[in-house]
Fold these 2 entries.
Entry 1:
Amino acid sequence: ILSLPILAWHAWKFFEPALYDNERRFVIPAIGLGFVLFLAGITMAYFFVLPLGLKFLLGFQAESLSPIITVDEYLRFATRLVLAFGIVFEMPVVLVLLSMLGIVTSAWLRKYRRHAIVGLAAASALLTPADPGTMLMLLAPMLLLYELSILLVRMVGQRERRGESPA
């Protein structure tokens, strides 16, 4: 997680010479927004979801039993949860870029909303540990981000139809 900005910088320096000036105008805001959304995702996971998820999971114990959590298990759980939230929060950037490439439209995203909800629920189940609490805590922002993505894609599409620059 800590090396992500350095990796992004090197990736940018690798691809930058191949891009036209008008393409660079789109990439720089996308990288900035992606970075902010990734930070928002990991912040939400670390400060809100991780404590609630641990409290939820530790609440299943009997009074005569005490949980034995190793550092390895805790770090694996926390890292997986934080990364899942960071990656999921990138959805608006990905969908807007796909829209700019002409692959998706806001009408298409609205038409297949039900399919997306099922897919997002499945992804949420795969990305989080095997408890419904953290799955729902990831699914709720995923659904909100999907709806936000539809609005952003529609705005980008309207600007493109008017001949304006979407960036």
Note: The chain has seven helices and no strands.
Entry 2:
Amino acid sequence: MSILLNRETKALIQGITGRVGQSQTRWMLEYGTNIVAGVTPGKGGWVVEGIPVYDTVAEAVAEQGAEASVFFVPPQGVKETAIQTIDVGIKLIVVITEHVPVHDVMEIREYATDSDVQIVGPTSPGIITVGEAKLGIMPGNMFKPGRIGLISRSGTLSYEVSVNLATAGFGQSTAVGIGADPVVFTNVPELLRLFEEDPDTDLVVLVGEVGGMQEEEAAEYIKKSMTKPVVAYIAGLNAPQEKRMGHAGAIIQGDGRGTAQSKVSALQEAGVEVAQFPAEVVRLVQKRLASS
């Protein structure tokens, strides 16, 4: 069953005529994603990789019945594009774009919540339901079909963890990159709930990092609501305070909030096995599955 996305999902690509949009469309199609339309204002009538392009998302939905969208649009255009997309009834949106203004993210998140729309990002590598479909830039060859759900704040770390798991014989059901900005559209507990309800997922791996309170909130949710085992890895154990570590959201506040140690402690108190380094995730997954 997986979560959020499957091979039947009708997807549209916003920003399909740009260089990145064109190349990623080709790779998503090769993976099996059911792309039915593209949108670029002023480029209606174009065809990219055999996909018809429309001027507006309303036209694309009316003509092709699209139900999910991925954005390859400039940061200043994300807010307007998101509102238009939500207004025509799209229920799943993935925002790859970086540097979206925080205030725009907050407005979009509220609007999406009020409209019952699942939106992932910004600065997200995307979503992949392994062996079926992907929306975004995740490399399909890094994943193997299986029964492990993956939630990650870091794209590259999620690839490393997924390859290690696949090599050891543990494939993934769905992997979701939530985005690495200080404010994101979807929080970890929301995704944990979806994996908890998914009959094709036996265990969830959470890849976190310093900054923010996502992992602490996840720990509270796990303690109260999760019956499936969770294994985690938190990057940045030695990160200094108030220094951004690559991602915009990977920064420890001066009051000590958001440290790797605070996240590890919260997760361990919730019964989560926490790896000391990425490769240890495999051993902990083996341990938890053997005991569950």
Note: The chain has two domains: 11-120, 139-291.
